[in-house]
Amino acid sequence: MAKVIEVKNLKKRYKKADKNAVDGISFSISEGEFFSFLGPNGAGKTTTISILTTTLAKTSGEVKIGGFDMDREPNKVRGHIGVIFQNPSLDLNLTAEENIRFHAVLYGLYTFRPAFSMMPDSYKKRVYELAEILTIEKDLFRPIKTFSGGMKRKLEIVRSLIHKPKVLFLDEPTSGLDPISRKSLWDYLQQVRKEQNTTIFLTTHYLDEAEGTDHVAIVNNGKIISYGTPEKIKQTLVENYLLIDSPDRNKLKKELQEKKIKFLENGQIKVPLTKFKAQEVIKKIDTELSVMQIHAPTLEEAYVEIIANSMEKDKS
């Protein structure tokens, strides 16, 4: 598939800093891909996403989005992207709808008209459609200064989607959202991705949101320290095993030994799932079991291990 984001040897060093905030990272993202960019605070995530969205100048490297070079064609890059920043970027002196309307005009979707009632029906329909998904349709004409933090976040999401971007950058998009709104947003984003082939670039501290991504890049100290599908990252770093036990544990251990099934005993019997799958192990056992639990690693477990290993290497 065509590459919609291409990053080569990207570097960023702030003035008076003694090291790079982004230190020579490279990656590419295909059209329609769901990509997550993870790392602890200060790892370089927000700096990277700020560069990719043209709000921060890079020190060196090459960035292309939608085939457009960021240095030579920044306006064309901006026309292809939508952004939900970690920190709010709304005009508090305007109503919610006015924030959306000025954003739509800025992107060249419509000519400016001084009132919502004067805007085309296509604009009105799009605004109400998005506002209803995020449950702020009754608040569209209220001033932003009366909104809670969660409502401001919802408005930023509506504003970022109004022009149907080909690439959507999400920097902690569900921060401040309640669980129902969070689920509604992700359901809608998956629908948009499927119907419009939108590429999604996500940074988040909710690692369950990254479980369903196509590829994950984990960054620390400005460098990519792990890259791959969520499954690949989990399989290479976090153990997959079966916990079992029996009223007659000695009999169970003897049977496992006879059938050459490796195990560890620590409170319960732990069978690493390296040679056999869980179902295969269970089929081989005749002894009555009182405990049977499969441990399937999560991306969060892998992430914690990767970051811990990276920090240990930095100390040594």
From TrEMBL:
Listed PROSITE patterns: ABC_TRANSPORTER_1, ABC_TRANSPORTER_2
- Supply the SUPFAM superfamilies for this chain: P-loop containing nucleoside triphosphate hydrolases
State the Pfam families in the record.
Answer: ABC_tran
Alphabetical keyword list: ATP-binding, Nucleotide-binding, Transport
In what residue span(s) does the ABC transporter domain sit?
5-246
Q: Which InterPro entries match?
A: AAA+_ATPase, ABC_transporter-like_ATP-bd, ABC_transporter-like_CS, ABC_transporter_ATP-binding, P-loop_NTPase
Q: Which spans are transmembrane here?
A: none
Q: Which one of the record's GO molecular function terms can you name?
A: ATP binding
The protein depicted here goes by the name ABC transporter ATP-binding protein
